[in-house]
Design a protein that fits this description.
- The chain contains 4 helices and 16 strands.
- It is mainly beta and about 400 residues long.
- It has a domain of about 270 residues: Porin, CATH 2.40.160.
- A 16-stranded antiparallel β-barrel has the order 1-2-3-4-5-6-7-8-9-10-11-12-13-14-15-16.
- α1 runs antiparallel to α2.
- The longest helix is centred in the first third of the chain and has 10 residues.
- The two termini are about 15 Å apart.
Length: about 400
């Protein structure tokens, strides 16, 4: 997807100063300094989606964490970013604030910020939320004069894991993968260190409250770590991320661990880009969407392969295959929480796979990217599109969508 340069507030200041009756001296010095030091960027995403119901109920796009309107129009994201990035060179300081509004914001809240719901599974469905707005990121960053420069983030920031991002312009597809929605955290609140060792190796490590928690739900802390390599002039990149710590409310002994690997490769065909993503997670017991505590060791894993090919300067296509196994029902329990719709009888432990095709148009209009997507999902249990009367659903689901993203 094409990247666009953010609007620098200095241009805005120039317009204000040139307005009739507006003199430069009327703008407070602190305001001018803020405009000089800060970049403003963002995007707006809106979509229409239709899910084909093979059993008579349009409903939602079952088992999707985001973009699951099912049928109708949606305002998915409206985001504004204020940032003072770190200057090149020695010691420096800056900040970043990302304000996200829309239907997606309702499902990515952290506990203790816009949500009082400590149950992670139902919080990802929007339960307990009191706002369709979220503070996606808000952190202070600074560079310590250690070696080539040790960068520090202090505050709330997006997770290091995964091949996809929360922001619509950073993804090849309208819908997110199961790995993104269910297998990994969205954000962390804590401290993160980043260091670039040389041209091909970079590392990150930090201590945070846990998965999607501004207010910690226990007294333990979670460790995050990542190592990335860049080879062949950036054509091959691989990043391995590990996240581990206690995540259950009031429990410091039951640990959750995930290991995530993302590989991107640009083969000799310069218009082609390939991505592989694999994830494995495990936990000592889990709390389901009804609040029931389950004992015993549980695990989940997922894998996806996606390809993007730019046919012309205006037309790009993408194809993704994914598989997600939640054999113990720890991430997508069948109790009507985050994942499958309620089943009768209750089913726990479902395997999912999906094939997604997307085409998007670029450069037809400045900053605007329309995308068309067709997605096919299949599960080994009838978890999709349960009837309003409470009957079982189906094992397959097909959906189509048209979304538009404007980046500024």
């Amino acid at each position: 997807m094409r990247a666009f340069s953010p609007i620098h507030p200095v241009a805005l200041a120039a317009v204000l100063m040139a307005a009739p009756g507006m003199a430069a001296e009327k703008i407070a010095p602190k305001t001018l300094q803020f405009l000089q030091d800060t970049t403003i960027s963002g995007h707006v995403q809106s979509a229409y989606q239709h899910t084909f119901a093979t059993r008579g109920s349009p409903g939602q796009a079952g088992s999707w964490q985001l973009n699951n309107t099912g049928d109708g129009f949606s305002l998915n994201q409206a985001k504004v970013t204020l940032e003072h990035p770190l200057d090149d060179g020695g010691a420096a300081a800056g900040y970043r604030v990302d304000i996200l509004a829309g239907q997606d914001a309702d499902r990515v809240h952290s506990f203790g910020l816009f949500s009082s719901n400590a149950n992670e599974l139902t919080r990802r469905q929007g339960t307990g939320s009191n706002s369709a707005m979220d503070l996606e990121q808000a952190y202070i960053t600074f560079r310590l004069p250690v070696g080539s420069g040790l960068d520090v983030k202090f505050g709330k920031f997006v997770t290091l894991a995964g091949a996809e991002t929360m922001d619509a312009p950073g993804n090849w597809f309208f819908s997110r993968s199961y790995i993104f929605g269910f297998g990994e955290p969205f954000t962390h609140t804590g401290a993160l260190l980043s260091y670039q060792w040389n041209d091909w190796l970079d590392t990150q490590a930090g201590v945070v409250n846990g998965w999607d928690a501004v207010q910690d739900n226990n007294s333990g802390k979670t460790v995050v770590a990542r190592a990335g390599v860049t080879l062949f002039d950036g054509k091959l990149k691989n990043a391995v991320t590990m996240i581990g710590g206690p995540e259950q409310t009031g429990n410091n002994s039951n640990y959750r661990w995930i290991v995530d690997d993302v590989l991107t490769w640009q083969p000799p065909m310069e218009n082609l880009l390939l991505t592989l993503n694999g994830l494995y997670g495990n936990e000592d017991g889990f709390v389901d969407s009804t609040g029931v505590v389950h004992t015993g060791h549980v695990s989940w894993w997922g894998a996806l392969a996606s390809a993007r090919y730019q046919w012309t300067p205006f037309v790009t296509m993408g194809l993704r295959y994914e598989y997600f196994s939640d054999a113990d029902g720890a991430r997508m329990d069948g109790a009507g929480g985050i994942g499958p719709v309620p089943l009768s009888p209750l089913v726990r432990g479902v395997d999912y796979q999906a094939v997604t095709w997307s085409v998007w148009l670029e450069r037809l209009m400045p900053n605007l990217t329309p995308r068309v997507e067709v997605r096919w999902d299949r599960a080994n249990e009838p978890v999709f599109q349960a009837l309003p009367t409470g009957g079982d659903g189906t094992r397959t689901q097909v959906s189509v969508s048209l979304d538009m993203v404007y980046v500024f």
